[in-house]
Design brief:
Layout lengths: L8 E5 L2 E5 L9 H9 L27 H4 L9 E15 L2 E8 L8 E4 L3 E8 L8 E2 L18 E7 L4 E6 L5 H6 L3 E7 L8 E10 L9 E4 L5 H4 L2 E3 L4 E8 L6 E6 L4 E5 L8 E3 L1 E5 L3 E7 L4 E6 L3 H4 L5 E5 L1
Parallel strand pairs: 3-6, 5-10, 11-14, 13-21
Antiparallel strand pairs: 1-2, 2-13, 3-4, 6-8, 7-9, 9-10, 11-12, 14-19, 15-18, 15-20, 16-17, 16-19, 20-21
The structure holds copper (II) ion (CU).
């Protein structure tokens, strides 16, 4: 499968790849509503083509989110992971920085990938002043379920057998859990079936929210951690070639999220489990920590918008584009 966008092609996944293309978003009435909404934010410039505060920080380039967007290559053996909880400032929108709690310095944390049945061995270090831990969804020994608090400076080894084949979130499970998740302690585990999946351009899209002003509610929403990122930097896909997207709802403080793709339908594998899709649609609705693997082709060249169909979320940073080239 041909890789596109030299210089912006990142994280080739075997024969899988996706790339970001930089181009200006269209100016339409769509943005008028964003400008109105942006005035409610505690910080930020309400002007701008992407909706002011709902735009990515100016210093980020099109590669800034590759590590949490492009899955690592499939692998057939045991997986070793170093996971350290660190507190760090993250620029999550133009003129908006949060004091985040993160796995390895980013939110979402690193994409972990393993083959079903293989051992994932995680050395977990809590390098913060609060209790934290690391809990995976999916199937594994309850002894390594990761709900027990690990104190500041603590270290623990989690050993889980990857499974079932699918896409599973991980997150901190320390009380108060809503706070620990909202501050950034979450990420994605992809489990491949033995023998792997069919060739496709692969992308992870994790819906998240940021409580910028610490009032227990989200003010910014993102795909993969930064407001407006994929609106400014569309995800570039060769027209007509298969696309596999792992979609996760990792938002705290919202009962439900969703993913809607414009101008095309997709097949859905709930939690990524199973060899045959459960149904075909253009919107999937996901409760907290729900996720799906979806597959589609973008047959015609052009831009295909995606966003949650909760528009108060979509308009506050969670609208993006696939660009079929
Ligand atoms: Cu925590």
């Amino acid at each position: 499968m041909t890789l596109l966008g030299a210089g912006a092609v990142l994280g080739s996944v075997g024969t899988h790849a996706a790339a970001h293309a930089s181009s200006a978003a269209p100016t339409t009435d769509h943005y008028e509503s964003e400008r109105r909404l942006s005035s409610e934010l505690p910080a930020g410039d309400a002007a701008g083509p992407y909706g002011g505060s709902y735009s990515p920080p100016n210093e980020l380039d099109e590669t800034a989110l590759d590590a949490v967007t492009i899955p690592p290559p499939p692998n057939s053996g045991p997986v070793e992971v170093e996971m350290t909880v660190v507190e760090t400032e993250i620029a999550v929108g133009r003129d908006n920085t949060v004091a985040a709690w993160t796995y390895n310095g980013s939110a979402p944390g690193p994409i972990i990938r393993a083959t079903e049945g293989e051992l994932i061995r995680i050395r977990f270090v809590n390098a913060t002043g609060h209790d934290h831990n690391l809990h995976f969804h999916g199937r594994h020994s309850p002894i390594h379920d990761g709900w027990e608090p690990v104190p500041p400076g603590g270290e623990v080894i989690y050993e889980i057998e990857a499974g079932p084949a699918g896409v599973h979130p991980y997150h901190c499970h320390t009380m108060p859990i809503d706070l620990h998740i909202s501050k950034g302690l979450y990420g994605t585990l992809i489990v491949d079936p033995p023998g792997g999946r069919s060739d496709a351009h692969e992308v992870v899209l994790a819906l998240t929210g940021w409580d910028v002003n610490d009032d227990g509610r989200n003010e910014l929403y993102t795909w993969n951690g930064v407001a407006g990122f994929f609106e400014k930097f569309p995800i570039k896909i060769p027209a007509g070639e298969p696309v596999r997207t792992y979609v996760l709802n990792l938002m705290e403080y919202e009962p439900v999220g969703s993913f809607h793709l414009h101008a095309e339908t997709f097949t859905v594998f709930p939690a990524g489990i199973g060899s045959q899709p459960a149904f075909e649609t253009d919107v999937i609705t996901l409760g907290q920590m729900e996720r799906a693997m979806i597959e589609f082709h973008l047959s015609d060249r052009g831009r295909y918008m995606f966003h949650p169909h909760q528009h108060s979320i979509a308009h506050r940073g969670a609208t993006g584009w696939f660009s079929a080239i």
